[in-house]
Amino acid sequence: MRPSVPSSLASLVAIIERLRAPGGCPWDRVQTHRSLAPHMLEELYEVLDAVDQQDPALLREELGDLLLQVVMHSVIADDSGEGFDIGDVADGLRAKMIARHPHVFSSSPPGELSAAEVELAWERHKEREQSVGAVGVALSRPESDQPPGADLAGMSGNAMQGAGVVPAESSMGRAHLPSALAGIPADLPALARSLVVQRKLGRYQVPEKGLGVDEWAAMAAQHLGACAASGGKGEASGRTVDPEAVVGDLLYAVVGLARAMGQDPESALRRKVQDLVRQWGGAEELADAVGRPRSDYSAEEWGAFLECAVQRGNAPAS
Fold first, then answer.
1. Which of 107, 151, 270, 305 is the most exposed place for a label (fewest CB within 10 A)?
2. Buried b / exposed e across 198-223, counting CB within 10 Å, b at 16+?
3. Is the pTM of this model over 0.70?
Protein backbone atom coordinates (compact mmCIF):
# COMPACT_ATOMS: atom_id res chain seq x y z
CA MET A 1 0.00 0.00 0.00
CA ARG A 2 1.29 3.49 -0.84
CA PRO A 3 2.15 5.60 2.25
CA SER A 4 -0.09 8.35 0.87
CA VAL A 5 -3.23 6.21 0.95
CA PRO A 6 -4.43 7.34 4.42
CA SER A 7 -3.96 11.02 3.49
CA SER A 8 -5.74 10.40 0.18
CA LEU A 9 -8.78 9.01 2.02
CA ALA A 10 -8.67 11.86 4.54
CA SER A 11 -8.64 14.35 1.66
CA LEU A 12 -11.63 12.62 0.09
CA VAL A 13 -13.56 12.81 3.36
CA ALA A 14 -12.66 16.50 3.65
CA ILE A 15 -13.99 17.14 0.15
CA ILE A 16 -17.32 15.46 0.93
CA GLU A 17 -17.59 17.37 4.20
CA ARG A 18 -16.98 20.61 2.31
CA LEU A 19 -19.64 19.73 -0.28
CA ARG A 20 -22.19 19.10 2.49
CA ALA A 21 -21.28 22.20 4.52
CA PRO A 22 -23.17 25.51 4.28
CA GLY A 23 -22.25 27.14 0.98
CA GLY A 24 -21.35 23.74 -0.49
CA CYS A 25 -23.17 21.76 -3.18
CA PRO A 26 -27.00 21.98 -2.95
CA TRP A 27 -27.38 18.40 -4.23
CA ASP A 28 -24.88 16.85 -1.80
CA ARG A 29 -26.31 18.76 1.15
CA VAL A 30 -29.81 17.28 0.81
CA GLN A 31 -28.77 13.65 0.34
CA THR A 32 -29.78 10.99 2.88
CA HIS A 33 -29.06 7.30 3.33
CA ARG A 34 -32.31 6.49 1.58
CA SER A 35 -31.88 8.90 -1.33
CA LEU A 36 -28.39 7.51 -2.00
CA ALA A 37 -29.47 3.85 -1.95
CA PRO A 38 -30.26 3.65 -5.70
CA HIS A 39 -26.91 5.27 -6.50
CA MET A 40 -25.08 2.71 -4.35
CA LEU A 41 -26.78 -0.11 -6.26
CA GLU A 42 -26.00 1.50 -9.62
CA GLU A 43 -22.33 1.95 -8.74
CA LEU A 44 -22.09 -1.65 -7.56
CA TYR A 45 -23.37 -2.93 -10.89
CA GLU A 46 -20.94 -0.66 -12.73
CA VAL A 47 -18.11 -2.24 -10.73
CA LEU A 48 -19.34 -5.70 -11.77
CA ASP A 49 -19.51 -4.55 -15.38
CA ALA A 50 -15.91 -3.33 -15.19
CA VAL A 51 -14.86 -6.71 -13.76
CA ASP A 52 -16.63 -8.49 -16.62
CA GLN A 53 -14.87 -6.25 -19.15
CA GLN A 54 -11.49 -7.03 -17.54
CA ASP A 55 -10.59 -3.36 -17.84
CA PRO A 56 -8.26 -2.31 -14.97
CA ALA A 57 -8.56 1.43 -15.69
CA LEU A 58 -12.34 1.25 -15.74
CA LEU A 59 -12.36 -0.92 -12.61
CA ARG A 60 -10.22 1.65 -10.79
CA GLU A 61 -12.65 4.42 -11.74
CA GLU A 62 -15.76 2.44 -10.76
CA LEU A 63 -14.26 1.36 -7.43
CA GLY A 64 -13.67 5.05 -6.76
CA ASP A 65 -17.34 5.80 -7.46
CA LEU A 66 -18.34 2.99 -5.09
CA LEU A 67 -15.95 4.31 -2.43
CA LEU A 68 -17.59 7.71 -2.82
CA GLN A 69 -20.89 6.14 -1.77
CA VAL A 70 -19.28 4.61 1.35
CA VAL A 71 -17.75 7.95 2.31
CA MET A 72 -21.00 9.81 1.64
CA HIS A 73 -22.99 7.49 3.90
CA SER A 74 -20.34 7.78 6.61
CA VAL A 75 -20.28 11.59 6.47
CA ILE A 76 -24.09 11.72 6.53
CA ALA A 77 -24.06 9.47 9.62
CA ASP A 78 -21.53 11.72 11.32
CA ASP A 79 -23.49 14.87 10.40
CA SER A 80 -26.72 13.35 11.69
CA GLY A 81 -25.30 12.23 15.02
CA GLU A 82 -25.75 8.54 14.30
CA GLY A 83 -22.67 7.63 16.27
CA PHE A 84 -20.10 6.74 13.63
CA ASP A 85 -17.88 8.15 10.92
CA ILE A 86 -15.60 6.67 8.26
CA GLY A 87 -12.95 5.91 10.90
CA ASP A 88 -15.44 3.85 12.89
CA VAL A 89 -16.41 1.98 9.71
CA ALA A 90 -12.76 1.12 9.05
CA ASP A 91 -12.13 0.17 12.70
CA GLY A 92 -15.16 -2.12 12.76
CA LEU A 93 -14.07 -3.83 9.58
CA ARG A 94 -10.50 -4.22 10.85
CA ALA A 95 -11.71 -5.85 14.08
CA LYS A 96 -14.07 -8.15 12.17
CA MET A 97 -11.38 -9.34 9.76
CA ILE A 98 -8.99 -10.13 12.63
CA ALA A 99 -11.68 -11.93 14.66
CA ARG A 100 -12.80 -14.01 11.69
CA HIS A 101 -9.27 -15.04 10.68
CA PRO A 102 -7.86 -16.68 13.82
CA HIS A 103 -5.92 -19.04 11.55
CA VAL A 104 -3.88 -15.99 10.49
CA PHE A 105 -3.87 -13.57 13.44
CA SER A 106 -4.09 -15.91 16.45
CA SER A 107 -1.02 -16.35 18.64
CA SER A 108 -1.54 -20.10 18.24
CA PRO A 109 -2.95 -20.67 14.72
CA PRO A 110 -4.60 -24.06 14.11
CA GLY A 111 -2.30 -24.96 11.25
CA GLU A 112 -2.85 -25.17 7.53
CA LEU A 113 -6.52 -24.90 6.53
CA SER A 114 -8.22 -25.38 3.19
CA ALA A 115 -10.37 -22.64 1.65
CA ALA A 116 -13.49 -24.70 2.48
CA GLU A 117 -12.44 -25.05 6.13
CA VAL A 118 -11.83 -21.30 6.34
CA GLU A 119 -15.29 -20.61 4.91
CA LEU A 120 -16.88 -22.97 7.44
CA ALA A 121 -15.00 -21.33 10.33
CA TRP A 122 -16.11 -17.90 9.04
CA GLU A 123 -19.78 -18.96 9.07
CA ARG A 124 -19.46 -20.44 12.57
CA HIS A 125 -17.93 -17.22 13.85
CA LYS A 126 -20.81 -15.24 12.32
CA GLU A 127 -23.27 -17.54 14.10
CA ARG A 128 -21.58 -16.90 17.43
CA GLU A 129 -21.66 -13.15 16.79
CA GLN A 130 -25.37 -13.28 15.95
CA SER A 131 -26.16 -15.37 19.01
CA VAL A 132 -24.95 -12.71 21.45
CA GLY A 133 -27.96 -11.50 23.44
CA ALA A 134 -30.25 -14.37 22.45
CA VAL A 135 -31.95 -16.04 25.41
CA GLY A 136 -30.88 -19.58 26.16
CA VAL A 137 -27.98 -19.86 23.74
CA ALA A 138 -24.89 -21.60 25.00
CA LEU A 139 -22.06 -19.55 23.56
CA SER A 140 -19.63 -21.98 25.14
CA ARG A 141 -21.02 -25.09 23.45
CA PRO A 142 -18.18 -27.11 21.93
CA GLU A 143 -17.51 -26.86 18.23
CA SER A 144 -18.22 -30.00 16.23
CA ASP A 145 -16.87 -31.19 12.94
CA GLN A 146 -20.34 -32.49 12.12
CA PRO A 147 -22.80 -30.22 10.29
CA PRO A 148 -25.64 -28.88 12.45
CA GLY A 149 -28.23 -31.56 13.10
CA ALA A 150 -26.08 -34.41 11.79
CA ASP A 151 -27.08 -36.60 14.77
CA LEU A 152 -30.77 -36.09 13.97
CA ALA A 153 -30.59 -37.60 10.49
CA GLY A 154 -33.54 -39.84 9.74
CA MET A 155 -35.82 -38.41 12.43
CA SER A 156 -39.21 -37.21 11.27
CA GLY A 157 -40.65 -33.85 12.27
CA ASN A 158 -43.04 -35.52 14.73
CA ALA A 159 -40.24 -37.58 16.22
CA MET A 160 -38.10 -34.49 16.72
CA GLN A 161 -40.93 -32.68 18.49
CA GLY A 162 -41.70 -35.71 20.64
CA ALA A 163 -38.07 -35.96 21.66
CA GLY A 164 -38.03 -32.33 22.63
CA VAL A 165 -35.64 -31.45 19.80
CA VAL A 166 -38.26 -29.32 18.07
CA PRO A 167 -40.25 -27.15 20.52
CA ALA A 168 -44.00 -27.39 20.72
CA GLU A 169 -45.88 -24.74 18.77
CA SER A 170 -46.87 -22.99 22.00
CA SER A 171 -43.22 -22.25 22.77
CA MET A 172 -42.41 -20.90 19.33
CA GLY A 173 -41.85 -17.16 19.14
CA ARG A 174 -39.71 -16.99 22.28
CA ALA A 175 -36.23 -15.55 21.99
CA HIS A 176 -34.12 -17.84 19.86
CA LEU A 177 -31.00 -17.93 17.71
CA PRO A 178 -31.20 -15.93 14.49
CA SER A 179 -32.01 -17.98 11.42
CA ALA A 180 -29.07 -19.36 9.46
CA LEU A 181 -30.59 -17.50 6.51
CA ALA A 182 -30.90 -14.20 8.33
CA GLY A 183 -28.89 -11.31 6.97
CA ILE A 184 -29.22 -12.27 3.30
CA PRO A 185 -30.24 -8.98 1.63
CA ALA A 186 -33.80 -9.19 0.29
CA ASP A 187 -32.82 -6.85 -2.54
CA LEU A 188 -30.20 -9.21 -3.96
CA PRO A 189 -31.05 -10.35 -7.50
CA ALA A 190 -33.04 -13.58 -7.26
CA LEU A 191 -30.37 -15.80 -8.79
CA ALA A 192 -27.66 -14.41 -6.51
CA ARG A 193 -29.91 -14.71 -3.45
CA SER A 194 -30.77 -18.33 -4.33
CA LEU A 195 -27.08 -19.13 -4.57
CA VAL A 196 -26.38 -17.66 -1.12
CA VAL A 197 -29.33 -19.58 0.37
CA GLN A 198 -28.09 -22.85 -1.15
CA ARG A 199 -24.57 -22.27 0.15
CA LYS A 200 -25.82 -21.64 3.66
CA LEU A 201 -28.22 -24.60 3.62
CA GLY A 202 -25.35 -26.75 2.36
CA ARG A 203 -24.01 -26.82 5.93
CA TYR A 204 -27.12 -28.63 7.12
CA GLN A 205 -28.49 -32.10 6.47
CA VAL A 206 -31.07 -30.87 3.97
CA PRO A 207 -32.28 -33.23 1.22
CA GLU A 208 -30.32 -31.39 -1.47
CA LYS A 209 -27.00 -31.42 0.44
CA GLY A 210 -24.21 -32.98 -1.56
CA LEU A 211 -26.10 -33.18 -4.85
CA GLY A 212 -23.80 -33.27 -7.85
CA VAL A 213 -24.14 -32.11 -11.44
CA ASP A 214 -26.12 -35.17 -12.53
CA GLU A 215 -28.65 -34.91 -9.69
CA TRP A 216 -29.21 -31.17 -10.17
CA ALA A 217 -29.47 -31.65 -13.94
CA ALA A 218 -32.12 -34.35 -13.42
CA MET A 219 -34.02 -32.07 -11.04
CA ALA A 220 -33.88 -29.22 -13.56
CA ALA A 221 -35.10 -31.55 -16.32
CA GLN A 222 -37.99 -32.65 -14.10
CA HIS A 223 -39.04 -29.05 -13.45
CA LEU A 224 -38.56 -28.17 -17.10
CA GLY A 225 -40.95 -30.99 -17.98
CA ALA A 226 -43.45 -29.60 -15.47
CA CYS A 227 -43.21 -26.20 -17.16
CA ALA A 228 -43.78 -27.75 -20.56
CA ALA A 229 -46.69 -29.84 -19.29
CA SER A 230 -48.45 -26.82 -17.85
CA GLY A 231 -48.00 -24.87 -21.06
CA GLY A 232 -48.19 -21.70 -19.00
CA LYS A 233 -51.93 -22.26 -18.57
CA GLY A 234 -51.88 -23.11 -14.88
CA GLU A 235 -52.97 -26.67 -15.53
CA ALA A 236 -51.12 -29.96 -16.03
CA SER A 237 -52.43 -33.53 -16.19
CA GLY A 238 -55.88 -32.33 -15.18
CA ARG A 239 -54.73 -30.54 -12.04
CA THR A 240 -54.22 -26.87 -11.28
CA VAL A 241 -50.63 -25.67 -11.00
CA ASP A 242 -49.07 -22.32 -10.19
CA PRO A 243 -47.05 -21.36 -13.30
CA GLU A 244 -44.88 -18.93 -11.34
CA ALA A 245 -44.06 -21.58 -8.72
CA VAL A 246 -43.19 -24.10 -11.44
CA VAL A 247 -40.82 -21.63 -13.10
CA GLY A 248 -39.35 -20.80 -9.68
CA ASP A 249 -38.64 -24.50 -9.05
CA LEU A 250 -36.89 -24.71 -12.42
CA LEU A 251 -34.73 -21.64 -11.81
CA TYR A 252 -33.81 -22.81 -8.30
CA ALA A 253 -32.67 -26.14 -9.74
CA VAL A 254 -30.64 -24.34 -12.40
CA VAL A 255 -28.92 -22.34 -9.65
CA GLY A 256 -28.08 -25.63 -7.92
CA LEU A 257 -26.75 -27.03 -11.19
CA ALA A 258 -24.56 -23.98 -11.72
CA ARG A 259 -23.27 -24.24 -8.15
CA ALA A 260 -22.44 -27.93 -8.62
CA MET A 261 -20.51 -26.96 -11.76
CA GLY A 262 -18.57 -24.35 -9.81
CA GLN A 263 -20.21 -21.47 -11.68
CA ASP A 264 -21.95 -18.31 -10.48
CA PRO A 265 -25.40 -18.30 -12.15
CA GLU A 266 -25.75 -14.52 -11.87
CA SER A 267 -22.41 -13.98 -13.63
CA ALA A 268 -23.19 -16.64 -16.23
CA LEU A 269 -26.54 -15.09 -17.14
CA ARG A 270 -25.09 -11.58 -17.11
CA ARG A 271 -22.36 -12.70 -19.51
CA LYS A 272 -24.92 -14.36 -21.80
CA VAL A 273 -27.05 -11.22 -21.94
CA GLN A 274 -24.00 -9.01 -22.52
CA ASP A 275 -22.91 -11.27 -25.38
CA LEU A 276 -26.38 -11.08 -26.91
CA VAL A 277 -26.45 -7.28 -26.62
CA ARG A 278 -23.07 -7.09 -28.34
CA GLN A 279 -24.08 -9.56 -31.06
CA TRP A 280 -27.38 -7.80 -31.67
CA GLY A 281 -25.49 -4.56 -32.14
CA GLY A 282 -23.44 -6.29 -34.80
CA ALA A 283 -26.62 -7.55 -36.48
CA GLU A 284 -28.06 -4.03 -36.53
CA GLU A 285 -24.83 -2.74 -38.07
CA LEU A 286 -25.10 -5.32 -40.86
CA ALA A 287 -28.75 -4.48 -41.44
CA ASP A 288 -28.05 -0.75 -41.59
CA ALA A 289 -25.30 -1.37 -44.15
CA VAL A 290 -27.94 -2.82 -46.49
CA GLY A 291 -29.76 0.48 -46.36
CA ARG A 292 -33.35 -0.55 -45.64
CA PRO A 293 -35.37 0.63 -42.63
CA ARG A 294 -34.94 -1.79 -39.73
CA SER A 295 -38.69 -2.34 -39.51
CA ASP A 296 -38.74 -3.72 -43.06
CA TYR A 297 -36.67 -6.81 -42.29
CA SER A 298 -38.40 -10.12 -41.61
CA ALA A 299 -37.68 -12.37 -38.64
CA GLU A 300 -35.75 -14.68 -40.96
CA GLU A 301 -33.59 -11.81 -42.19
CA TRP A 302 -32.87 -10.63 -38.66
CA GLY A 303 -31.97 -14.21 -37.78
CA ALA A 304 -29.49 -14.29 -40.67
CA PHE A 305 -27.95 -10.96 -39.60
CA LEU A 306 -27.61 -12.20 -36.03
CA GLU A 307 -26.07 -15.50 -37.11
CA CYS A 308 -23.55 -13.61 -39.23
CA ALA A 309 -22.71 -11.28 -36.34
CA VAL A 310 -22.21 -14.24 -34.01
CA GLN A 311 -19.90 -15.94 -36.52
CA ARG A 312 -17.91 -12.75 -36.96
CA GLY A 313 -17.73 -12.31 -33.21
CA ASN A 314 -17.44 -8.58 -33.66
CA ALA A 315 -18.99 -5.85 -31.56
CA PRO A 316 -20.67 -2.99 -33.44
CA ALA A 317 -18.25 -0.33 -34.70
CA SER A 318 -20.00 2.32 -32.61
1. 107
2. bebeebebeeeeebeeeebbebbeeb
3. no
